[in-house]
Amino acid sequence: MSVPEQMTRRTYGNPPVHEAILSLRFKREIPEKLLESAPEYLPLEVYGIPSRQNELTVQAAVGQGRSGFQADAKFGGWEFSADGRRWVTRVSRSDLSFHALRPGGWPYEGYPGWEEIRGRYVRLLSDARELFADQEIRRVGLRYVNRIAVPATDDINKWFAVTPAWPGILDSQEMRTFTYHAAFVSVQNHEHLSATVRLGNANVEESLPADLVGLILDVDIFNYRVDAAPSLGRAVDWFDEAHSVENQVFESCITDDLRSRFE
Predict the structure, then answer these.
(1) What is the pTM of this model?
(2) In angstroms, rounded to a whole number, what is the distance separating the alpha carbons of residues 187 and 228?
(3) What is the structure's pLDDT at 64?
(4) Is residue 3 part of a domain?
(5) Neighbouring C-beta atoms of residue 20, cutoff 10 Å
(6) Is residue 27 part of a domain?
(7) Which of 193, 170, 174, 172 is nearest to 183 (CA)?
(8) Which residues pair with 263 in a beta bridge?
């Protein structure tokens, strides 16, 4: 994937970011006893109230005159939620993820910005270091989910630079649903990084005015190769680089007309 290095995300008055997700997946699972103790390392006043998360497994039961399904719930980890679910932390046997969310179905209220997200994540890695000590990372990812509302009658090419070329017999203004998904094993000048870009209709419970249509632009920067994953000690540096690349990908996907709507 080729992205122009000089193109970086502008500072918008109302950026379309709905959720930013920083995730780590490790090569080995941590012991259940250690996972149970996670709330001891993540203080309530910072990460919020912990909630136990169970993994549900369903097995088919056949034999001895009985048939059907048997469901078993197994402890899978914790979810911590702070400040009205603006900050969510999830800890499982082999995953650690941090979510920065804007309240509501559409990004109306203020976006905290990368520096605050980064600062909170640096603290999370410090507080959780005993949980994942000596772990090796299998997958690392930085994902930005953008929710964008545009006039329903406009051609989508007015707003986005990454849309399929439709056959001439089809009028894109009459299109009601679509999904565009592309995956790239490497990024130009950042060969150890991979990317996926998804653009499509947003299925959001909170409705929009009748003259608008909701779309999602979802950009995920990650390592495709396991050997390209950073060490835990270099994770923050990796996220800084991935954030810069994500900015470039985002800006490359939109037009000036759409940028003006975020001012």
Answers:
(1) 0.88
(2) 13
(3) 61
(4) no
(5) 23
(6) yes
(7) 193
(8) none
Name residues whose C-beta falls within 8 Å of residue 119's C-beta, 6 or more positions apart in sequence. Answer: none
Assigned domain for 10 exists? no
Structure-token pair, residue 127: 């507080």
pLDDT at 236 (0 to 100): 98
| Token representation of residue 51 | 């909630």
DSSP track, the chain: ----TT------SS--EEEEEEEEEESSPPPHHHHHTHHHHS-HHHH-EEEEEEEEEEEEEEETTEEEEEEEEEEEEEEEEETTTTEEEEEESSEEEEEEE-STTTT-SPP--HHHHHHHHHHHHHHTTTTSTT--EEEEEEEEEEEEEEETTS-GGGTBS------TTS-GGG----EEEEEES-BTTBTT-EEEEEEEE---SS---TTEEEEEEEEEEE-SSGGGPPPGGGHHHHHHHHHHHHHHHHHHHB-HHHHHHT-
73: alpha, beta or left? (left if phi > 0; alpha if psi -120 to 50): beta
Q: How far is CA 231 from the centre of its chain?
A: 21
Q: Do the Cβ atoms of 112 and 106 come closer than 8 Å?
A: no
Where the chain has pLDDT below 50, the residues are: 6
How many residues does this entry show for the chain? 263
What total number of domains does the chain contain?
1
Tokens matching residue 11: 């500072």
Contacts of 161 (CB under 8 A, 6+ apart): 252, 253, 254, 255
Residue 134, domain member (yes or no):
yes
Q: How far is CA 127 from CA 39, 49, 124, in A?
A: 10, 16, 5
Which pLDDT belongs to residue 184? 96
Domain residue limits at 72: 17-261
Q: How far apart are CA 67 and CA 173, in angstroms?
A: 52
